[in-house]
Amino acid sequence: MNLSFIVTLVGADRPGLVNALAECAAANGANWLDSSMAHLAGKFAGIVRLDVAEADADRLEAALRALSSTGLSLSIERGTAAAGAAGGELIRMELLAHDRPGIVRDISSVLAQHGASIERMDSACESASFSGEAMFRAELEVRVPASVSAGEVQAALESLANELMVDLKLETGA
């Protein structure tokens, strides 16, 4: 049986951080499955899902923890190798708005009210191409439970989009 390790890391950005993690994973029999990493505020931050045989799990965890001596702050969580397919419908969202505090709170509140779960979210602040104004951009994948209509969630989000003056693109499909 295999286990998944969810590893979060933060450290001073420098060449070789990803390689050190990849070498550690490979040397201990782990397969690198999913990751998201970025340079944020002068730091390097990431999250990685590794898959490893149960017999190698303790050795991998010890080796990962040893990376903290290189200046990385690590958090390691064990999970199951493959979760069953979630029920419900998947909605993909693209959001673009003038940046202001509370956008993520407002969107996530609507989703929570409908029992929807954010499966993936990527966001960034960037300058508008002509005006240079700060713009907030996000891409989300949201799982809506089978007991809730995706159309209902879409309508609530579109209503919120009108209040917040955001551009919102929604795509449904399981």
Automatic annotation (TrEMBL):
InterPro entries, per the entry: ACT-like_dom_sf, ACT_dom, GcvR, UPF0237/GcvR_regulator
Pfam families from the UniProt entry: ACT, ACT_6
GO biological process, alphabetically ordered: regulation of DNA-templated transcription
Domain ACT: from-to ranges: 6-81, 92-173
Protein name, per record: Amino acid-binding ACT domain-containing protein
